[in-house]
Design brief:
By secondary structure, the protein is mainly α. About 35% of the residues lie in helices and about 10% in strands. The longest helix has 17 residues. Bound molecules: flavin-adenine dinucleotide.
């Protein structure tokens, strides 16, 4: 998963996006920044970092835990004063930070435009195609293959396989 200038992307997001068919439903991505640690383990880790940086500001104590560009974003979501010293952070504030790191939410408002799509599910219904020949059931002599068909798969080579397999079948049957 990647953070980009427009939101989130990367193979995981692309795969998840194929299950998002109606953006009016209001989708939310839940991101765990420290999946290898349980809440309690991460809490211990944060406590240790705060102890080591006891006289530093909260924003200057997160350098070992997070990438530099993410720190101001986390501080803003955390809702504390960035200059607040580690020694004056309360237990509840620390726990709120741990919760945020374990469940950072991003509201998904839309997909990228179609001209940036990786796979489009082009619109020709599978039920209107003869799967043995790829010929249209509606128009004799018309064959479909690849993305123009209403199918898509998780990223990772499956869409290319769809294009190649249906392309070969359509090609062999149309001559
Ligand atoms: C950035 C990106 C990354 C991707 N990564 C993966 C991946 O990792 N794994 C995976 O499985 N899939 C991946 N895909 C999806 C995969 O590439 C497509 O699903 C697949 O190429 C579709 O094949 P196709 O032959 O149906 O269409 P296309 O490959 O789009 O071929 C259609 C061809 O038709 C031509 N054309 C268009 N209009 C006309 C016209 N009027 N006259 C003549 N020619 C025309 C186009 O120029 C194009 O060459 C990726 C797609 C993109 C955009």
């Amino acid at each position: 998963m990647l953070f980009t200038h427009f939101g989130i992307s990367g193979p995981m997001v692309l795969s998840a996006s194929c299950n998002m068919r109606d953006f009016s439903l209001g989708y939310t991505a839940h991101i765990d920044f420290k999946p290898a640690l349980t809440f309690e383990q991460l809490d211990l880790r944060v406590r240790r970092d705060f102890k080591e940086n006891i006289n530093k500001s909260a924003s200057n104590s997160l350098g070992k835990l997070l990438p530099k560009k993410l720190i101001p974003v986390i501080i803003e979501r955390w809702g504390i004063d960035a200059d607040k010293k580690c020694n004056s952070l309360t237990k509840d504030e620390r726990k709120a930070l741990v919760s945020l790191l374990k469940d950072f939410t991003v509201k998904i408002t839309s997909a990228r435009p179609i001209n940036e799509a990786i796979i489009t599910s082009g619109g020709v219904k599978v039920s209107e195609i003869n799967p043995k020949t790829m010929e249209s059931k509606l128009v004799h002599g018309l064959y479909f293959c690849g993305e123009v068909i209403d199918v898509d798969a998780y990223t990772g080579g499956f869409n290319l396989v769809i294009a190649w397999a249906t392309g070969r079948l359509a090609g062999e049957n149309s001559i």
